[in-house]
Amino acid sequence: MKIDVLLQPCAIAAFAQSESAGALCVVFDVLRATSSMLAGLAWGVSEFYPVATIEAALQLRAQRPSALLGGERGGERIEGFDLGNSPFEYQDQKGKSIITTTTNGTVALQACAGASQVLVGAVVNLAALAGAVEALRPERLVVVCAGTGNGLALEDVWAAGALVKHFAGASWSDAARTAVAVYGAWSDAGAALRESENGRALLRNGREADVEWCAMRDRLETVGCMEAGVVRKWHVARLCA
Q1: Maximum Cα–Cα distance for the chain, whole Å?
Q2: Which end of the chain is more exposed for a tag (fewer CB within 10 A), N or C?
Q3: Distance between CA 88 and CA 210 in Å, rounded?
Q4: Distance between CA atoms of 226 and 229, rounded to whole angstroms?
């Protein structure tokens, strides 16, 4: 297996245009989009519809009036939306369909739409995620770090490195080796998340509980799979079947 890591948004844009076909993509937006999606799926949300823009979310809501609107801009709930981007907001949404748009995470998911398979990852499901990749046996794994704005997000690269290191016998790109080095620089997820730019911003805004929840490695056995633009919960044996 060949493993590459897209460390920041400019690499994701190039990948979406010309390189996604045939790859298994794993998307990380640890603080907080993919963590919140996984929380929702674990707690019974039926499906997420990740879209890149607020306008696209509103248009889809017009077609699916029973769906809830979730997401953020600048870390805050979008005006008029039902939910923000905290994992705790998705705890009591069992059976619901949620249309979501975030600054980076949903954009990264959309950019991977041309891949053969797309999985949703975070620190909270790393072991389950590794098991899913093993079950799927891809020839090419591309780990996508959603980033912060136009730049790199430490927490995403840390999580990517944790996943890549699990596959020590694979062929790693230099970007994959970089992610593994970042992973090795912090003793645990909590330290990496608290020291990251996003983590520090959340802590300043009183969202320590979100940071701590997102840093709890392997707290979930849930893996999300995006097919035809919809993210749902799948069992490992049936992932993207």
Answers
A1: 48
A2: C
A3: 8
A4: 6
Stretch (H or E) spanning 226: strand 223-227
pTM above 0.90, yes or no: yes
- Return d(Cα 11, Cα 152) in angstroms, integer: 10
CA-based R_g, the chain, Å:
16
Q: CA 19, 23, 25: angle at the middle one, nearest 5?
A: 105
Closest CA to 193 of 133, 124, 101: 124
Give per-residue pLDDT as tens, 143-169: 999 999 999 999 999 999 999 999 999
| Domains of the chain by start residue, with CATH | 2-230 (3.90.1560.10)
- Total length of the chain: 241
Cβ(213)–Cβ(35) below 8 Å: yes
Nearest to 142 by CA among 104, 169, 109: 109
What are the DSSP calls for 12-49, one per residue? HHHHHHHT-TTPEEEEE-TTTHHHHHHHHHHTT--EEE
* Residue 153 per-residue DSSP state: -
Is residue 176 within 8 Å of 145, Cβ to Cβ? no
